[in-house]
């Protein structure tokens, strides 16, 4: 059923490849891989790795929560406690919690890479550009906030972000092929005019490229088996990663209006990218490249959908309907 739905979407050229898995902590209910790694390319397979895009964000959120458990930082620490250069800015009162819940006041959707072509210049632009709204005043999805979370986690521990992700997420959860790029065996993303070629195995997000590919908002690649494994771990309560109380705090709703947890998105009704058929307490995250991971804690189910919907161009929004139809159908799977 799910394979037929996704095969039709491929025929409509929404993406060249898709992989999916729906199941519980005890096993898989439906899974598969279809299509080609790029149009006219080799078949996508079990070992093909997908650019997770913003699904990187909750992984980094888990790292931050794990560090808070260990006393390396507090969720209520102000930004300058770990990044002192922010002390004399309008961002000095932003807390770790506000960064995690997208209530920091930092803007979203800002293509800083267009005008700030080096890592130092881009980070300085984040530091010095005035906030459009005061911290805590509203929910605005902001990749800049998770860029800062990645920097903050590294500063608090003296450890590079990729090592922190390995230590606190991929190793304990058993995700051996998940990591930051560049990677081999990747599913292609965009035919990028800026880079002059079809992007394969390098992070799609341009701000992440300027930052070197290892950052808090995007950059992770993973095969289907690893993402479904993470889904099973989360559906079973996240025990290898976090204490029960910490996990519960991460997935609780911390905002008014748009529902945001700590690094996770709740089920907004209407307006959820995965439709409204899932349980009200479900949580997850989507990625711009066409990826998503969603969990229903009450039912103990996870839902993984991986596509390259930005291949060869990002302009179509057809993935929005595919995501909703996929989750509407997946919820009805018996088991």
From TrEMBL:
Domain of life of the source: Bacteria
Annotated Beta-lactamase-related domain residues: 27-315
Organism: Amycolatopsis mongoliensis
Record's protein name: Serine hydrolase domain-containing protein
Record flagged with keyword Hydrolase: yes
EC nos: 3.1.1.103
Keywords carried by this UniProt record: Hydrolase
Pfam families: Beta-lactamase
GO MF term set: hydrolase activity
Signal peptide stretch: none
